[in-house]
Amino acid sequence: MRSTRATLVIALTAPLLLLLVGCTPAVVLDAADDAANPACAPAMVRLPDTVGELAARETDAQSTAAWGQPAFVLLRCGVPSPAPTATLPCITVDGIDWLRDDSNDPNFVFTTYGRTPAVEVIIDSDGNPDVTNDGVSGFDVLSELAASVSEIPADRTCVSPEVAGS
């Protein structure tokens, strides 16, 4: 009788334990100042389920996203649109202009240029041995996010330093 009861308890609790083990906490992020901007919504709903091999994670703030376990790629929509700058390099990936801030190397911050609201993508590669990026590069990340980000219309584009100086 006792072994039947123990077997029943194990049989009933095992599925629950498996569900709990599979749960990961939401990634804690600060929402951008303009996260409630309606222009963020079309971009957010088109975000990919994976970036490279990194799976999307649940986040706890509006207009944010994260990929990887632990989180390697972080996204916030609604950050201020950057002013024209000659100090940050501008790169174009799949039709989207991004300003690259590598002042916190090995972490990199990419912010869309010419789109309001702007989207910020942080590649969180701080040398933590627990963070594995599965070979995903910053270029790969920006390329895979291009379709989503393109939902926010561009109102200006980057120009080369030669054009800017003329």
How would you sum up this structure, described in words?
- 26% of the residues lie in helices and 23% in strands.
- It is an alpha+beta fold and 166 residues long.
- The chain has one domain (26-164).
- Strands 1-2-3-4-8-7-6-5 form an eight-stranded antiparallel sheet.
- The longest helix is centred in the first third of the chain and has 21 residues, at 2-22.
Keywords:
eight-stranded antiparallel sheet, 4 helices, DUF3515
Structural class: alpha+beta
Strand content: 15-25%
Helix segment count?
4
The major pleated sheet works out as: 8 strands, antiparallel
Mean pLDDT: 83
Q: Radius of gyration, Cα only, in angstroms?
A: 21 Å
Molecular shape? globular
Total number of strands = 8
How are the strands of the biggest sheet laid out side by side? 1-2-3-4-8-7-6-5
- Provide the succession of SSEs: HHEEEEEEEEHH
End-to-end CA span: 90 Å
Helical coverage, percent range: 25-40%
How many domain regions?
A: 1
Outline the low-pLDDT stretches.
Answer: 5-21, 162-166
Protein name: DUF3515 domain-containing protein
Signal peptide: 1-26
Keywords: Signal
Organism: Salinibacterium xinjiangense
